[in-house]
Amino acid sequence: MMNRSKLITTGDKQMQINQIEIDQKVYDLYDEYCHGTMDKREFLIRSSTLVAGGLLMAQALLPRYVQAQTISFTDPRIKAKYITYPSPGGSSGQMRGYLVQPSGNGPFPVVLIIHENRGLNPYIEDVARRAAVEGFMALAPDGLFPLGGYPGNDDEGRLLQASLDQQKLRTDMLNSARYLKSLPLSNAKLGITGFCWGGSTTNYLAAEMGAEVLACAPYYGAAAATASVPKIKAQMLINYAEKDDNMNLMWPAYETALKEARVDYQAFVYPDTLHGFHNNSTPRYNPGAAQLSWDRTIALFRKYLA
Question: N or C end of the chain, less CB within 10 A?
Fold first, then answer.
């Protein structure tokens, strides 16, 4: 059963300042923009004509990745590097990712961190570092590597990711998970989390990998295909935003399939949140929901991977 969580209230005033009272209609346009139905120019123009002050609201929603760094890439608690590895059947036969491990000798439980629909941006790299300081070796693959990697801005990244063969892109994520699990410093206990497109892919990999993965925590992602749900063996912790109809409308059928397949799951909808509430680089960020959902994700991984 989906739970409506009581959120941590610390940071609410800061969130309100960041959001500068952005009109919900501009948020709705931003959601369309994020999912590739318009480019940035159209988003800004339409926002400016939609409501008074719409252009300022739209500009405030664009990512500010300097704000997203919570763990420095030089933090002494971690060791981080970029690696390349084989990816047979993927977009190019090879992948690149950001590998972050705790300082120490291991072995470590391992977590795959899957990006949104725009490649490996600085926010996702920071999430990998956040996992590493909690004791996990984390790999954040860049699905855009076959096209030169994350281009440094989300607009181009979105276009590049949409241009890829989507099944091959998912194969690259599958190969990344298996590669991470096989590393010498891995304890061979794998968890997966991801956001938006990465949440959808987390659901997909939970079914595709079966018993190979022990715990999954998708964030506001499309449900796994109903026919594939009986293959899920992982412990599932499913995170939804309250104001996210595109994703939430899939939940009733997904929940029915999970129950029929006797999958062990928990699902939470976070009140007064928007799609992308975990991403602290935009005003959709909700500090209370982000922290509570992340605490639950880390607790899940500690319970089943450590």
Answer: N
